Amino acid sequence: MRNLDASQHHAGQTAKIWEDNHDGTMTTLHSGVVLTPEERLARRRLIFHDALSLLTLFLITSVIFILTWLLHRSFEDHREELGRRWKARGELALHEGRAKDAVDALRTALAYVPSRATEIELATALADAGRTTEATAYFNTLWDSAPGDGMINLQLARLAARQGDEPTAVLHYQSALDGTWQGNGYDRRREVRLELAGYLISRRKYDEARSQLIIAAGNAPDDPAIKIQIAGLLEQAKDVQSALDIYRAVAARHPAPLGALTGAGRTAFELGMYRVAADYLSRALATPSAAGLAESDRNADRTMFATADRILLLFPADDLPARLRAERILTLRNTAHARLATCAANPATTASLGDLAARWEQLPTRITVNQLEQQPDLEQNLFQLALDTETVTAASCGAPTGDDALILRIAQNPGAVEQP
Q1: Cβ-contact 258, 289 below 8 angstroms
Q2: Which fold has domain 183-314?
Q3: What is the dihedral of CA 288, 294, 298, 303, to 10 degrees?
Q4: How far is the C-alpha of 18 from the C-alpha of 299, rounded, in Å?
Q5: Label partner for 372 (CA 20 to 30 A): which of 19, 21, 294, 412?
Q6: Domain boundaries, the chain
């Protein structure tokens, strides 16, 4: 009976809770614990307070993160700006030849912003400052990580050349030619090839230098300045004919560059092509821009032109009228015979001039222009004897002067004098 009453009481209580839920006046927990309205409100306030605390923590963390990021970014930007400034100072000092200042500035730039380009510039500054050992070590370290870098190989070639290590210098020059370059690699490789040619010339490796210059000439752009530069190096490499060919090709432009005119005149003069030399030198001297040349260069051009012009007046060219040709040969004969007489007056030279004197004795004592006009063989023999006399007497009695020196020039290459 008592159990029945407890069950009924429990059922009634459950029904009461259910009804209260519908009324909104009471609630229950899963455990069956009943919360009063005050407890329920407190619970909501607690949840709201916890959510607000979490949101506040999140906002504070976000603000700290953003401030930290902004400070870090500001520091990085400031450091990069300092690095750029010191790098610019170093590059300016390097450009102005202040290598020591460049080393200090570039080291500072690297401390702020490590950069491979700056490392190369620092090594270059060390080399320019004469700190060859440091520069070599620096570039070798860079080379280990990039053996195909053209700039690094070029700098190592220069350092090896400075130290007199020719095999290493040539090896790195060749590696620079085959290496990679930033920017216009075509132009940089040509510059390296010309520098290599100049180095080989300084080592008297003329054949190897000529090979490099011929390649450079074949690949050179249509730029008069570059072609004139190559021609100048070919002169130094003892390939005067190739230099003349380039100078003449550039001088064919309109207007002709002064450097091409003077170069063509100079190389033609060296080759004994006095007709060509006189033509180009006269044009060079008449060019308005010649006034900008150094006085010593202008005087050299004037002297060459005067010499070439006088040789052309002495030379008995085949296309001259017969009488004028005969007159010139007679003039050469008289000049050379007088030179022989002066040279033979020295007893020490008598023996060396014996054969030459015998050839003169076989000729008639008195020779006229009419005789030479009528006897082409005599004319030719006399011309050759005059040339041989100047050659032999120069070896026995020293360098001649005046017209004797000009006849000696003719004797060195008579076929080139009037060559076009």
Answers
A1: yes
A2: 1.25.40
A3: 180
A4: 127
A5: 412
A6: 82-130, 183-314, 322-416
